[in-house]
Amino acid sequence: xxxxxxxxxxxxxxxxxxEFKEASKTLPGNLFETICSMLNRxxxxxxxxxxxxxxxxxxxxxxxxxMTRDLVNLSNNPQKLDPPFILFPEKYEIKGNWIIHLxxxxxxxxxxxxxxxxxxxxxxxxxxxxxxxxxxLYNRKRNHYSEGTIYPALRFEDFNLALFPKxxxxxxxxxxxxxxxxxxxxxxxxxxxxxxKDYQSGQEGYTLxxxxxxxxxxxxxxxxxxxxxxxxxxxxxxDRYDDRAYIQTNLIEAYEALMAFVVKHLPDxxxxxxxxxxxxxxxxxxxxxxxxxxxxxxxxxxxxxxVIYKDRxxxxxxxxxxxxxxxxxxxxxxxxxxxxxxxxxxxxGLVEELGSGLLNVNRYISQYAKDGIVQFLEGNxxxxxVRDYASDKVVMDTNGAVNGAVNGAVNGAVNGAVxEVLVQVINTIISNQGEATLHDLMGxxxxxxxxxxxxxxMLKTLNLVEFHGVAKTGKYVLxxxxxxxxxxxxx
Length: 491
Fold this sequence. Notes:
- There is one protein chain.
- By secondary structure, the chain is an alpha+beta fold.
- It has 3 domains: 1-144, Schlafen, AAA domain (Methyltransferase, Cobalt-precorrin-4 Transmethylase, Domain 2); 229-390, Heat Shock Protein 90 (2-Layer Sandwich), CATH 3.30.565.60; 392-490, Arc Repressor Mutant, subunit A, CATH 1.10.10.
- Helices cover 41% and strands 19% of the residues.
- A hairpin with an 8-residue loop joins β10 and β11.
- α14 crosses α16 (449-461).
- The chain starts with a helix and ends with a helix.
């Protein structure tokens, strides 16, 4: 979440999707009533350290870390929030005062706190006491969020067990103290909201979201025979395709397969943000790919496609729309179509918090392709279009900058063939997220170990490449000198 949006929220009035709470040293006693009601309604934002009038009263800096830890643990505790829905608050400093921001998405499940169901209106949180009110809430969730459909015959043995260590490794790489890491595989599924009980019908079991995230391929195909993601490259053969990835596996590996297709066919432009080299391709397309997977309406048979054309890229998926027409990134309300799947992808670090994807794509698209324009079209289907994209322009920008840097460094001291290999070595390091092993470089340039070591030594002498780490596991990276040259050329 950007600090600009937080500042804008403070200037708005409390309502259905916005709540202010004073919290100097401890969490407010009624905080989980608001969390519960927002999960049950349309989601929203909670700002701690702001009074009802919108004045920032602040959170005690000495207590803020403990309060954020408590929020994470309590939201993951079924004794406090049933079923749990793990939330991750962020802290911000505004004009010398600290506040805590909590983004609460709409959930596909009905939640309780203190054994009580809460709902939300413009006037705040209110208890649902009458059975008919609670039944109406269940019906609304069931009709709108198909990911929560219960499959009573779905068993734990229907899941791909190899995915559980992969999932925990991804979580651990982001947060080594994440509360899910200590759970058994069965308990992880339950805490993640992938097992539920319908208190109206009495049905209980694993959900459609559980099958899509962890199911064996044959199980997913039995539940959803139409499920597939079709990735196509249509640059030369526009009637059919130049390359194709036909994906029919769980969502975690589907994300990886689709990103591999992106890396295979879309170039990456060298870009430095501050002093850090980032991959513009990953920044942009991880959000588009995640949006395609996370917000798809899976019970509809409409085909899900990702197509790379010469002048544009189009991603299309079935959708349960929450509006119609183009989405304005500067003025939109994020609304998850599959809250449990979205939450799970956030824990894996595959997507950022709700609503950040559109902002990141719009932020970086003009850096990736100068004439790049991206459109998000809400409807059924949901369509994302990157227009006026020219992949050859991106390649020329990158190669031109590297060629210029190498030319300036060698200053005629080597012949053209050697210079081409030096450029290739640097481009290999760039394409590997800014670092490469000797083995990576040997494979890329097709030369022997001894020859590649000679080229690397030349680049080290020219202050273009340096080695980081120990002999067996270290990698070659670009020097600060070369990074600055490339940054100057890109601007």
